[in-house]
Amino acid sequence: MAQQVSIKNLNELESFAERLVSQFQAPLLLLLSGEMGAGKTAFTKMIVKALGGGEAASPTFAIHHQYESAKGLIDHYDLYRLKDAQDLESSGLLDRLQSAQGLVVIEWSDRLDEDFWPPPWSQIKIHFVKNDDGSRTIEHSEKV
Questions:
Q1: If 0-12 CB within 10 Å is exposed, 13-18 middle and 19+ buried, where does residue 80 land?
Q2: pLDDT tens track of the chain, all 144 residues?
Q3: pLDDT digit string (tens) for 70-81?
Q4: CA–CA separation, 76 and 74 (whole Å)
Q5: What is the DSSP letter of 38?
Q6: How many Å apart are CA 122 and CA 128, to the nearest integer?
Q7: Three-class SS of residue 63?
């Protein structure tokens, strides 16, 4: 069942990220979607920081970044620039999904069919909606 959270500013977004991290159990896919500028990358940076993975890089030019944290590896993929199956293959995502451990955060996850995401990964889908007043609505659901 999907839930909605209203986020008025970056502090509230960070609090939401910290609450999510406090419940984190590997292996977990964090599937992010929403329009450009809705907050996917900012949220990812907050997740990495909350897990002790340091300062996350913006995925502007790279499809994949990896961070080490106390809770294991954090893999961050941005599928926005994927052009075809060859790009997906070269990103390393398919190989990474074979080792069900740690956290995999995927921005623009809606670029792949919903059936693409394999078990035994738990999934949290988060959709960011930019509101006219600058706030965000976050719709999230879990699939274990």
A1: middle
A2: 688 999 999 999 999 999 988 888 888 889 999 999 899 999 999 999 999 888 888 766 778 899 998 888 899 999 888 877 787 888 888 888 888 788 999 999 988 887 788 777 788 899 999 999 989 999 988 876
A3: 888 899 999 888
A4: 6
A5: S
A6: 20
A7: coil
Amino acid at 23: Q
Rg (CA), the chain: 14
Within 8 A by CB and 6+ apart from 33, the residues are 40, 108, 109, 110, 125, 126, 127, 128
> In the chain, what are the domains?
3-143 (3.40.50.300)
Residue with tokens 């890089």: 57
